[in-house]
Amino acid sequence: MKNLFEFIVEKAIFLSGAASIIFVVLIFIFLLKEGLALFGEVNFFAFLFGQNWYPISDPPQFGILPLIMGSVFVTFGAIVIAVPLGLAAAIYISEVAPHSIRGFLKSGIELLAAIPSIVLGFIGIIFLAPLLKNIFHLGSGLTALAGSIMLAFMALPTIVSIIEDAIVSVPRSYKEGALALGATHWQAIYRVTIPAAASGILAAVMLGIGRVVGETMAVLMITGNAAIMPTSLLQPVRTLTATVAAEMGEAVSGSSHYYSLFAIGIVLFIISFIINIFADIFLHRSKAMKRRKK
Amino acid sequence: MVKITVAGLSIWYDEQTAIKNLSLQVSEKEILGIIGPSNSGKTSFLRTLNRLNELTSNCKTEGEIQLDGKSIFKEIDLLSLRKLVGIVFALPLPLPLSIYDNIAYGPRLRGEKNKSKLDGIVEKSLKASYLFDEVKDRLNTSAFNLSGGQQQRLCISRTLANEPEIILYDEPCSGLDPISTAKVEEAMRDLKKNYTQILVTNNTKQAARVADRTAFFLMGELVEIGDTTKMFTSPSDKRTDDYIAGRFG
């Protein structure tokens, strides 16, 4: 009786543990099943590198390069804004700020993560887009830059908390050793603490990128939604995610258009898979350092 | 000649006293051994000499320490003090850099960029700690690949590269095997020609082997200070005798 109970519990726990992996595999299979159907009609390279996304013209064209570039532009802009900010904030929180301010700042940054992306989208439309329009004298402020700025704020909490973790786990003695050699506080941070935390910082950047690439709602609202090849951050763009979100409702089930949206899903899945693997490798390295400290 | 004068030094952590009203003098180019059981304030005293103790936020210091007649708190700038007074920690902790960069770290901080000068400093410092022959072919590999004893001698080299006048050792051999310990001690004896050294150790025999004079700390107080040979053969305080003989601590 007791053995049976043990057996059931053991298997139940095993199933819960395996569930997430099973789901990932099932999702991928589902995506493949729906998405690969497209390549019966459309050439794979024409899909990936085609410059025109006209899914409902006649004949339709399914080139997602403008969408990929839209995602790349928005992500690149967001990371360029978020990483220096996040790094500076993390250094301030972990190395400089007095104890009382530290807790306050940390919860403030976590609160930023709790803001729904649709709210950031509102702010982008109402406040940021007109501001950019006036600053750069554009026809419309709904551009890749607007998306980048809003997404930078969305990625910031992830980036700050992981970098802060990485900095805190650098053995205190590294910094002390540098100070004992006559380094100033900043020299010790810059030459010893940050290089020692480098793998954690890279992991933070990767996860930040993952967060930005996958974001849909805010970019759909504020990037202007024009599926054209972008040449600057001041143009409207459309990202992979926004395309799926915007067109899924109107695509005829079973049509090439419908399949192409799933194929975009596959591309997104692969991108975030790769990003996660890199983030994992870097996080692993920074954990290895944490162990060495003991 | 007197190198360091400590007068009426007291150290607290919050309400707890680590050092009570300590006064002593260290002569130039001697090795002063400091022995005593744990919690006797040895390390706190040592870390005060280059003001590393100030990194501990609840630490409070009172009294005066003079280096060549100048107050380390008021007359010597903090960064120059840390250059003048180098420290070797209990655990050998290289910076996460190559062997070469570990040693060049201090000189580079002071703006030394000349490659051949840096090469010279690195070689000289490594030779002084008897490490050069063991690592000369792999100066650009990570310092973490060295053995514990080699890492500790690397830390001594790193301190020497700063051209200090005083070297502090905080139980430098506590994690080392006897052979590595012997090498570190040999380096210390050799460095006596040019440097004033203070050695905090839990190993009374180590103090007996390398120190010219020895101080015995107990519960934050200096019980006795004097010539090492005399201290180990006929100490004037009974507590010192008991500690050295291993009757407590």
Automatic annotation (TrEMBL), chain A:
It is found in: Cell membrane. Residues 68-279 form the ABC transmembrane type-1 domain. The chain crosses the membrane at residues 12-31, 67-93, 113-132, 144-168, 188-210, 257-283. InterPro entries: MetI-like (IPR000515), MetI-like_sf (IPR035906), Phosphate_PstC (IPR011864), Phosphate_Transport_Permease (IPR051124). Pfam families: BPD_transp_1 (PF00528). It comes from the Bacteria. Belongs to the binding-protein-dependent transport system permease family. CysTW subfamily. This is Phosphate transport system permease protein.
UniProtKB/TrEMBL annotation, chain B:
PROSITE patterns: ABC_TRANSPORTER_1, ABC_TRANSPORTER_2. Residues 4-244 form the ABC transporter domain. The keyword Nucleotide-binding applies. GO terms for biological process: phosphate ion transmembrane transport. Keywords: ATP-binding, Nucleotide-binding, Transport. It holds the Pfam family ABC_tran. SMART domains: AAA (SM00382). InterPro entries: AAA+_ATPase (IPR003593), ABC_transporter-like_ATP-bd (IPR003439), ABC_transporter-like_CS (IPR017871), P-loop_NTPase (IPR027417), PstB-like (IPR005670). CDD domains: ABC_PstB_phosphate_transporter. GO terms for cellular component: membrane. GO terms for molecular function: ATP binding; ATP hydrolysis activity; phosphate transmembrane transporter activity. This is Phosphate ABC transporter ATP-binding protein. The lineage of its organism: Bacteria, Bacillati, Saganbacteria.
